Amino acid sequence: MLGLEDCCEDFKDICASLADVSDAPYWREIMKSDNPQLCPLPPIYEDRLTNFQKSMIINVLRRTKLIGSLKEFVKNELGAMFIESPPFDLEGCLEDSSNVTPIIFVLSPGADPIAYLKALAEQKEMTKSFESISLGQGQNVIAEKLIEEGQKSGMWICLQNCHLYTSWMGELEKIQEKQDPTQIHKDYRLWLTSDPSPYFPVPVLQNGIKLTNEPPRGLKAGMTRTFTDLGPERYEANVKKGPQYKKLVFALAYFHSAILERRKYGALGWNEGYQWMNSDFDISEKQVFMYLEEQPDVPYYTLNYLCAQVNYGGRVTDNKDQRLIIAMLKKYFCAEIMQEGYKLSSLDTYFAPPEGTLEQTLEHIATFPLDEDPEVFGLHSNANMVYQQNLVNTFVDTVLLMQPRVSAGASEKSPEEIVTGKCEEFLALLPGILDKKKAHPETFKKLESGATVSLGVFVGQEIDRFNKLLTLVRKNLEDLIKAI
């Protein structure tokens, strides 16, 4: 707090305020609250300080709660939309692309874009003209044939997992470079999926449209994404047992988001890291729908087994994690879920809403807190301490890394100024082009036969190579200065 007083006049006498009896209740509440960013400061500082300066106080008093304070800061300054995950806009990427522009999915854990791509193909009536193949050894011939057919007939071709077939990436680059837009069907599109890889061809990456579908952070964002993807038609499709279906789907969505969010706690959440996908939820939802349509009663035991041990449990390798995932779903897939107000956790906020439309369900999810308590996942509140500390440290380190550096006794410089200065320094040290005419007379001495001595031949070749190198280095340094 002494540092805050020194850095800005607005924090004047804040240390004295901490010891002031009249201000003590305000500071005490900030120190005790789970959401200190929502607690009011003593009146003089509440009126005087900006939202950012209030975050500075949280950083000093409750560092582990800094991320929540920064979310509140962004919400107040820019709007709530900037702290919530936006919908995955695949159609917008399609509109921005062309028949020679590849659309590249950068894969991330817990997100599978193929389901979105198939849904878009169906929406655009391209289902019969959509072909997908997972790359691997021996698949290059099939991939090249699909690309050739797609360019002629206007198909959508999806090559999945490009990072698994690095030896063929050079051929893919050649295929893309030879493309002539006038010779390719206007409806042709090439979709590529890949993990971040140093072997992915740079020209293809530069010329393509890059997008990623990061899994939403937080239970609220995860469930919102799940129900948005589900859509109103599917949500209302079960005519026979609509109320039971909606309760079970809500419980399944809660379960899906909960097991994903437990991963952020490291070994406290799961003994191993598991990459559950949207496809796990999709197949489980389809099984719930099917069994409710075909069975007279809700088969809780069967659904528990299929979802916890087959669909999601099929990825689980640790036996303790297997027991945990079974126990978690058993609390959600049970007869009590049909009761109004049945709580899915020890907290009062989380329960399945009364039967209604998809819009009403999303409104119910919108009432969930943005930052959930670990008890939602069956963990003690202390589990958040390590996670929040690591999150804050990573955030602060990243912010500091982006800031200008200050050297001892020198004025503050931006990263661009530092790089420009280094380039100019290297250019000053770089020697000029080597001139063979300035060589020692004996170096290129001619023999009686008219040939140059062997030393001259060797030195001449080296001079040519060094001149090429010096020219290239100088050009790159000059281009870098121009780019900056």
Describe the structure.
With about 475 residues, this protein is mainly alpha-helical. The chain has four domains: about 1-85, no CATH class; about 90-210, 3-Layer(aba) Sandwich (Rossmann fold); about 220-385, Helicase, Ruva Protein, domain 3, CATH 1.10.8.720; about 415-484. It has helices at about 1-5, 15-20, 25-30, 45-50, 50-60, 65-75, 90-95, 115-125, 140-155, 170-175, 200-205, 220-230, 230-235, 240-260, 280-295, 300-310, 320-330, 360-365, 385-400, 415-430, 455-484, and strands at about 105, 130-135, 155-160, 190-195, 210. A five-stranded parallel beta sheet has the order 2-3-4-1-5, with helices on both faces. Strand 2, helix 9 (about 140-155) and strand 3 form a beta-alpha-beta unit. The chain starts with a helix and ends with a helix.
Report the span from N to C terminus: 39 Å
CATH uppermost class of the largest domain: Mainly Alpha
- As a whole number of angstroms, the C-alpha radius of gyration is 31 Å
**Structural class estimated from helices and strands:** mainly alpha
Poorly predicted runs = none
